[in-house]
Amino acid sequence: MKKSVLVTGGAGFIGSHTAVELIEAGYDVVIADNLSNSEAAAVEGVRKITGTNVPLEVADCCDREAMDALFRKYAFDSVIHFAASKAVGESVEKPLLYYRNNILSLVNILELMLKHGVKNIVFSSSCTVYGEPDKLPVTERTPRKKANSPYGNTKQIAEDILKDTTIAHPDALRVIALRYFNPIGAHPSALIGELPKGVPGNLVPYITQTAASLRECLSIFGGDYDTPDGSAIRDYIDVTDLAKAHVAAMSRMREGKSRSVYEIFNIGTGKGLSVLELVDKFERATGVKVPHKIVGRRAGDIEKIWADTSYANRELGWKAEKTTEETLASAWAWEKRLRSIE
Ligand code: UFG
């Protein structure tokens, strides 16, 4: 049976790591990416790690004709749809860009899957759909809260679109939505990793750039949260562990093991770490100091969230394996390679 997977957004951070894991698990991968927030060099990295010549199709999922041509060119049997915009702050400034990139692209992909008889899709959702939860850890049954950014709203709407479409086409479509917690780290080879453009908005790239002396000082947003040390808590998941969850989801669907046509899984480690704890772990894992200071809270941030991953552990036969120290060391190895630091 052919195992050809279209990976949209496959030149991006999570997409490139997932492409590696899929190829290593025996899948034929085709990467489609418009390179708007990623580099073709990431695909070069995937090729080097896997020793394959994985194709990169420079195409925008919002361009239905271009995507139709790809569905005609390759015999996909599954899709992993990463392609999306992901900066919370930018989504407030440019909501229409987010609704276009994150919603129109998904509608196009689903229409093309139905048209070409492609059944399986793994979708990149986010723990952002839970908002500030009333009870921790969050399970897949924890109610979604009203989104507090257009970005968060696109993830909720996308989940609803997927659900409605499986209800209308139960024989033609199978969906697994993975709700990612905070992905960090880089491939152990240091050939692929996160490539933020400009000043990093996310914590770990800011930490590694500060450690590399590109930034003077890390600002810790908020020291007065209701947490043991006052800084905010997240569930930081290694990107390679996260990538492996996609392979597990893909086999589940292809082997007919899904319990329903639309399934959701939390993908995290199951443990929460504060910003200060993460900085401390980074310093211990790498021996490099990260100058930091506590400043005011960042607008729109939640106080604390971490995942209950027992459903994913049981049903997908998957669990996060890397320690946070290993993951932070991999992020540092990647940053050092980018900056040619010995
Ligand atoms: N933080 C700092 N200083 C920084 C950057 C971040 O203190 O320079 C803090 C944040 O305030 C937050 C934590 O580090 O408490 C993590 O922040 P990130 O920006 O790395 O991640 P977020 O939790 O804000 O966002 C991530 C993803 C989003 C996703 C969201 C869901 O980047 O795509 O989780 O909650 F929507």
Helices and strands, with pairings:
Elements: E1 4-8, H1 13-24, E2 28-33, H2 40-50, E3 56-58, H3 64-73, E4 78-81, H4 88-93, H5 95-116, E5 120-126, H6 150-168, E6 174-180, E7 182-184, H7 203-211, E8 218-221, E9 233-234, E10 236-238, H8 239-254, E11 262-267, E12 273-274, H9 275-286, E13 292-295, H10 310-315, H11 324-338
Parallel strand pairs: 1-2, 1-4, 2-3, 4-5, 5-6, 6-11, 7-10, 8-13
Antiparallel strand pairs: 9-12
Features:
342 residues, alpha/beta, Rossmann fold, UDP-galactose 4-epimerase, domain 1, 2 domains, seven-stranded parallel beta sheet, two-stranded parallel sheet, 11 helices, 40% helix, globular, binds uridine-5'-diphosphate-4-deoxy-4-fluoro-alpha-D-galactose
Provide a descriptive summary of the structure in words.
The protein is of the alpha/beta class and 342 residues long. It folds into 2 domains: 4-184 and 236-267, NAD(P)-binding Rossmann-like Domain (Rossmann fold, 3-Layer(aba) Sandwich); 203-234 and 270-339, UDP-galactose 4-epimerase, domain 1, CATH 3.90.25. 40% of the residues lie in helices and 16% in strands. It contains 11 helices and 13 strands. It has helices spanning 13-24, 40-50, 64-73, 88-93, 95-116, 150-168, 203-211, 239-254, 275-286, 310-315, 324-338; strands spanning 4-8, 28-33, 56-58, 78-81, 120-126, 174-180, 182-184, 218-221, 233-234, 236-238, 262-267, 273-274, 292-295. The protein has a 7-stranded parallel beta sheet with strand order 3-2-1-4-5-6-11, with helices on both faces. The protein has a two-stranded parallel sheet with strand order 7-10. β1, α1 (13-24) and β2 form a beta-alpha-beta unit. α1 crosses α8, α5 (95-116) packs parallel to α6 and α9 packs across α11 (324-338). The longest helix is centred in the first third of the chain and has 22 residues, at 95-116. The radius of gyration is 19 Å and the shape is globular. The model has no long low-confidence stretch (mean pLDDT 97). Uridine-5'-diphosphate-4-deoxy-4-fluoro-alpha-D-galactose binds at residues 86, 88, 126-128, 182, 201-203, 206, 218-221, 232, 234, 275, 298, 301.
